[in-house]
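User: Predict the complex with 1,3-dihydroxyacetonephosphate.
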Amino acid sequence: MRKPFVAGNWKMNTDSRSSVELAQGVAKGASGLAGEKVTVAVIPPFVYLQSVVNAVRSTGVAVGAQDLYIESKGAFTGEISPAMLKDVGCNYVLCGHSERRHVLGESDEFVGKKVTAAIGGGLLPILCVGELLSERDGGQTEAVVARNLKTGLAGLGTDKMSAVTIAYEPVWAIGTGRTATPQQAQEVHEFIRGLMADMFGKKLAEETRILYGGSANAGNAKELMSQKDVDGLLVGGASLKVDDFVKMIQASA
Ligand code: 13P
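Assistant: Here is the predicted structure with 1,3-dihydroxyacetonephosphate placed in the model:
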């Protein structure tokens, strides 16, 4: 029903050579699965997008960007438009990754504008949501995730919503080696799906893919993916190693 989706967010890593090698390694290792049994995307830094697109052409591996700007062109020094991403062959784009929210200060409202801009530009946004450790400890997980989702998806009709993937990434689990337990992930994913049903109807909620991210690795991928509402993985550190990332794709198939 929902095709598994494994995406590798390379963050601010790799260089011109290793980005291409990594992309080629993923395409080779995932051949027969990528684009068929599993949606596979690699998400390199902006400057390597074009060479990574070229490296995975016709392999079934898709390419995403880590961010985008909300305007289509003009005097926005340093920013990248949806059309530019489309032009170099990107299909997916992360919106509201926790590092953009908590390191770069992006608000829910700004993230919502990015989701709208992405869809308007023909891209498929991956909206990232998730709570800080203090928010989890304070019993605020559902409130934070609901706010991220409601504001992030504000103004989208059901027709546009079918372009969106959600990624639940508890901030305390990102890059810390402290993965959410499969049960913790499932609880929040189920909550997200329920919220989507309230907002967009049950059918769309059942069709929307909800990925888990936060210290996912080759060792825990299968158990995370065995949860009913976990439809895929958004992988940071482990996506920089071909063998680990390929194992995670295989575990998700
Ligand atoms: P890690 O897998 O390194 O914890 O990062 C997760 C993440 O932020 C993916 O977007």
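The longest strand covers residues 124-129.
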